[in-house]
Amino acid sequence: MCIRDRYQRRVRGINRANMKLTATAMLLATLAIAVTAQGGAPHLPAWVTSGTVSYVHQVITSPGDHCLEITIPGGTDSPFWKDEGWKYSAPVRPEWGPGQCDHTKWKTLDSKTTDYDGYTAVKNAPYAGVFLIKYGLEGETAPDAGGFSATANMFSTLVKSYVHPTEPHCEMVTCRDVTGSWWKANGWRYNTWTSGPCPGKFNFVNEKDAPAPNVEHQTMGVKTADSMVDTFADVPIHCNSQGAKTRTIAVVNKLSDSIKLRTCHKSVDPVTGWACNHGGPDSEFIDCATHIQSGISAVLEIDVAAVTALPVLFAPSGAVDKVSNCYMTDLSKPVTMDQAWWDALQKSC
């Protein structure tokens, strides 16, 4: 082969390589335009992994309308997807689709299941744990799926607190109707207060009063471990509907900085595992007016008709830490809320 022929073959090879690079560049540019038009990485086309995170979702209509969204750190490279990904697409489960729920439609954050299907940060290493968020139709705009906002419209009760700078006390106001006349007239007084309950170290109720219906004011103090009595003390917390017949249940919090119970008149559906907040008559949660603070023994006043309760754990910052996967189904006996109780509850459904 002459030198001229070898030269021409080399030029043709370079041209083919350049054509491949040009096609790749055009594809990447198209993707960049799509991402920009849709407002950034969380809204990439469904088949594109967002950074190192991917999503799958499913819309369900019975009981109630909801969208389930699984966030998968590590995307298709994650241990979760390599082991379980076949379950979240056709032909096995065609009801699951790629991408996130439509957050312009699904706005209420109903619940969050951390370490979904057992995929903790350890099991899903080197990526973070997998989690599932269940969205509803009404409420505030949903937070980014990569995080969990404690200010989401998860509870109707407003709680604000103020830690006294020179005294070991914390004041806390709980309003169950922010549309009422009392809050409209007095809410401005609490503009500088912190959203959420008093920090966990304020573990004793010194004073409590009710300035108006659906409004409760408490002054919390600090009681040291040496002086605390490990019994069910008379610290009442209202978890009842207005005008309903009530009964009491004794609890003690040895688990979390604070715990809130959402009581429910409905039994758990054996098929879905759901109780309240999924449509139908008498299906609204009845939230306890205040949290059960760390180390506190309390007596909860609940409706006679309440048959289940959903516990929610809070961090010292006042943010939601964990939402139980399962409902409490026996509200007739005293409960010591410790780690063993929590672990058993998560395995009960």
**Runs with pLDDT <50, length 5+?**
17-51, 139-156, 225-234
SS summary, helix count: 4
Q: What is the element string, with H for helices and E for strands?
A: HEEHEEEEEHEEEEEEEEEEEEH
Distance between the ends: 77 Å
Radius of gyration: 26 Å
Describe this entry's structure for a reader:
- Helix content is 16%, strand content 30%.
- By secondary structure, the protein is an alpha+beta fold.
- The model is unreliable at 17-51, 139-156 and 225-234 (pLDDT under 50).
In short:
The protein is an alpha+beta fold. It is built from four helices and 19 strands. It has helices at residues 3-37, 79-84, 181-186, 339-346, and strands at 53-60, 66-73, 97-98, 108-113, 131-136, 158-163, 170-175, 194-195, 204-212, 215-221, 236-239, 246-253, 258-264, 286-287, 292-293, 297-303, 308-314, 320-323, 335-337.
